[in-house]
């Protein structure tokens, strides 16, 4: 098979998932002296797997606890859920549909920071500036602690969840109910 067939400007070429294209690509890949990997620039085909993730009946990798909708790392998304408080939590709750660990931290972030922010706004409107300032510091410290804790728990490959009293169990039941 010539290399011009792979990058042809002809009116029709079979799509990459077409069996004929895959057979031709597999023959080209097998002709190399060593097995080509994704890291070396080769395009993996459906009949070869370069990971230790078990494949299902249809050739697709089965879902794992580390898989996310966005393709980002679980630890980064869990920490991001605390970054902007209810805004990032709501964004992740809407878009992240696969990973329960990320969804749990998004629920917990929304349930912890929303009441605190409302209380902060109420204190600001009523003129309690010192209370509002101390509440702002408490929000920032709590969000930072929870983000670091979520990141470290996921990066250490344990995926344990730190439950904030009263709010954590509620978030866990919401995730379990989905």
Give a structural overview.
It is a single chain. With 178 residues, the protein is mainly alpha-helical. Helix 2 (74-83) crosses helix 3 (86-95). It is 54% helix and 0% strand. The chain is built from six helices and no strands. The protein has helices at residues 19-30, 74-83, 86-95, 100-126, 129-155, 167-177. The protein starts with 18 loop residues before the first helix and ends with a helix. The chain folds into two domains: 9-62, no CATH class; 74-177, no CATH class. The longest helix has 27 residues, at 100-126. Its main location: membrane. It is a multi-pass membrane protein. The chain crosses the membrane at residues 131-152. Residues 1-24 are annotated as: Disordered. Keywords: Membrane, Transmembrane, Transmembrane helix.
Secondary structure class reads mainly alpha
The helix content is 40-55%
The Rg value, from CA coordinates, equals 24 Å
Distance between the termini: 50 Å
Please count the helical segments.
Answer: 6
- Into which percentage range does the β-strand content fall? under 5%
- List unreliable stretches of 5+ residues: 31-36, 48-62
Strand segment count: 0
Subcellular location: Membrane
Keywords: Membrane, Transmembrane, Transmembrane helix
Membrane topology: Multi-pass membrane protein
GO cellular component, one term: membrane
């Amino acid at each position: 098979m010539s290399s011009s067939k792979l990058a042809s400007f002809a009116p029709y070429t079979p799509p990459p998932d077409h069996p004929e294209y895959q057979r031709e690509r597999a023959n080209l890949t097998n002709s190399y002296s060593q097995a080509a990997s994704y890291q070396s620039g080769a395009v993996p085909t459906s009949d070869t797997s370069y990971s230790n993730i078990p494949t299902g009946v249809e050739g697709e990798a089965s879902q794992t606890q580390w898989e996310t909708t966005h393709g980002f790392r679980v630890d980064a998304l869990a920490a991001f859920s605390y970054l902007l408080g209810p805004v990032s939590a709501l964004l992740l709750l809407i878009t992240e549909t696969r990973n329960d660990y990320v969804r749990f931290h998004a629920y917990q972030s929304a349930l912890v920071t929303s009441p605190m922010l409302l209380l902060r706004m109420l204190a600001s409107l009523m003129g309690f500036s010192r209370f509002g300032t101390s509440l702002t510091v408490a929000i920032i410290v709590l969000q930072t602690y929870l983000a670091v804790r979520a990141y470290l728990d996921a990066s250490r490959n344990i995926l344990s969840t730190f439950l904030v009293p009263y709010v954590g169990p509620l978030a866990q039941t919401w995730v379990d109910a989905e």
